[in-house]
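ok trying again, last paste got cut off:
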Amino acid sequence: MLNFGFVIEHRLGHITHYQNLVRWIAEDADIHPTWMPIKTGENDRWERMPIIRNNWSLQASLRARDAIKAALQVQPLDALFLHTQTLALFGFPFMKHIPTVISTDATPLNYDSVGEGYNHKVGGNSLLEQRKFLWNRSTYHAATALVTWCQWAKDSLITDYGMPANKITVIPPGVDMEQWHFGRDKAAHPISTNPRVRLLFVAGEFARKGGYTLVEAFRSGLTQECALDIVTKDTSIERELAGMEGVRVHCGLTPNSPPLKELYAKADIFVFPTKGDCLPIAVMEAMAAGLPVIATDVGALREEVEDGVNGLIVPPSDAGALVTAVRSLVGDNTKRHTMATASRRLAEERFDARHNYGTLLNLMKRIKQCQPSL
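nice, full thing came through this time. structure:
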């Protein structure tokens, strides 16, 4: 039996990643997992300490350090998995003795490049920024192996942080291809049975994911042809859009839940005009569900959506371009069907959870015998 420790950020899309990882590790009889989700709002000493309480990176990495210490008091760990690198900032003492994988959806410099969408300010104190860069680089260097969700992040590790390519493996998170296949073949039924084509938007953070751009587009030219389902954690949106014709807002839906899957199953087009992102799992789910995807050229989204193949790429914050893209699919059933089929095919090739999480666990089994990098 292998005792593996899994320390994972428990916020944003990482929650879905955590849930999926739990599900697939449960099928591996060789692994005894110790789960250490690192959450916000813990009301612990780090939440109350000046400076640290306003800095998620420091809070998360200190909580991770405490969680690993507590786990080691129960039993030794054969390997550690840390997602993301934020949780590894105080992990040097552990990484000296325990083979460790650091996983990331984006490097800090990747994040800076999409920072505007996250209201993340780039620059400022140059000396502080340099120290942060060196700290992150040292953290990456200390890991036994590095996993990135996408080529975009791998390229940054190599080019920006000087990591050797053979230390990095691209392993995206995955979707259960059986659970996200709903028995309705888009190829067999390219024309919606609904009077309006159903658009679906799924995002916890409504504003960052381009929700207001989508609402503007819907109001300005899509209300007669389309219906829109919005899934978000932002309950104020439900009140804000109350009474808007053709729009339904769904709050409180959890990752992988039956009501969420039902919305994907009934949708015709997935619309995701995000302003700040890395490699969103919601898009993978839409692809697995066999939906054409309209998205923006942000982060690593082009590693999911191939313009003209399984969807369309539009500029961020451009409601007019979004209207044009939606109409081009609403009015062309053949194009919609072709893109839907391509989405499912690409999801099976790139984002099959059984394959991807299996690859990750096999990597951890291999590094178990390795001496961690110092």
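cool. Residues 215 and 332 are 22 Å apart (CA to CA). Confidence is low (pLDDT under 50) at residues 185-192.
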